[in-house]
Amino acid sequence: MRRKKQSRNGSPTPRYLTIKIQYWPIPRLVLFSPLLVILCYVLFSFVYSSLRAIENRVAIPTTIRYSPEIASSLQFAKLLAMTPPKSLSKEPVIIFHGSRNRREVALTFDADMTYGMQEMLSSDEVQSFYDQDLIAYLTKDQVKATLFLTGLWIETYSDTAKELAKNPLFELANHSYSHKSFSGDCYGLGEMSDEEDKEEITKTQTLLKDVSGKDTKLFRFPGGCYSQTDLVSAKKAGVIPVQWDVVAHDGFNDDGEAIFHNVVDHVSNGSIIVMHMNGVPNEPQTAKVVPRIVEKLRAKGYTFVTVSELLKAKQTPEIIIYHSLVSP
Ligand SMILES: [Zn+2]
Predict the structure, then answer these.
(1) Distance from the alpha carbon of residue 312 to the mean position of ligand 1, in angstroms
(2) pTM, whole model, 2 decimals?
(3) How far is CA 71 from the centre of its chain?
(4) Is residue 58 part of a domain?
(5) Ligand 1 center to 112 CA (angstroms)
(6) 44-53, 100-109, 233-242, 257-266: lowest mean pLDDT where?
(7) Which helix or strand (DSSP H or E) is residue 154 part of?
(8) Does residue 111 belong to any structural domain of this protein?
(9) Domain range for residue 215?
(10) How many domains does the chain contain in total?
(11) For all residues of the chain together, what is the average pLDDT?
């Protein structure tokens, strides 16, 4: 007769082994929480540094910059051919600079003219709002530049505008008709209504076509002031707004040394430099300081190109397109 197995201490061996699983939520949390904290910190640092990197390269804080990869996919070259890809067809675009990979810069000179400035000319309060010395220097030293002309300036200096159009060094572009503000007070320029936006652009488009025989697509807002509505207006008028990433601050500035450093200390590859071509008294130092700026930048290896040339290169997929989502 078989006897029931007995353990050493005499009690029967259990048929099934029961294993107690103990679940300790709190000790596990204690174990993993430092890891979670480290993970969160790493993620936060990454997001924060990415945002800062983007912010540091945005000229106007309220403007969002597409990443180079996205900008590349937007086919910038097509944009300059004035046939925006479908992905951009609904989006207004504004330019701040060109490729950061090539040692090229664009000097731009604005020819402002308001109705008030016209009165100053007719009353002989001011002799001229054309900086002949500046243009003579640029021509003599073969420096390419883009000239943003207001319609009133073209009407005041129509023969000069025609001569400038013939000069292969210069590209003529649109700086509105009467240099009123498109958005806000804008340094006292006086804001116009949104309805006037289109006319301020198209009138000068027509004048530029008359003097140059060409259609220009580059436009600069007076004072650089604009809203989202204005970007849409510009797009409807068939122009691309061009801002800048280097400001000379040459307007009403007698400090040539400061103007010089405002430019040469801040230029980088692809920069668009904004200055003026109204001459004395509005810009008393521009013609004197530009030769120094050109000499210094050439010594640093920069080549001067027009804005269209700066932006045109098809081999620059990293070119930056800015898309303004909110008004600055
Ligand atoms: Zn201006």
Answers:
(1) 24
(2) 0.72
(3) 13
(4) no
(5) 5
(6) 44-53
(7) helix 151-156
(8) yes
(9) 66-324
(10) 1
(11) 80
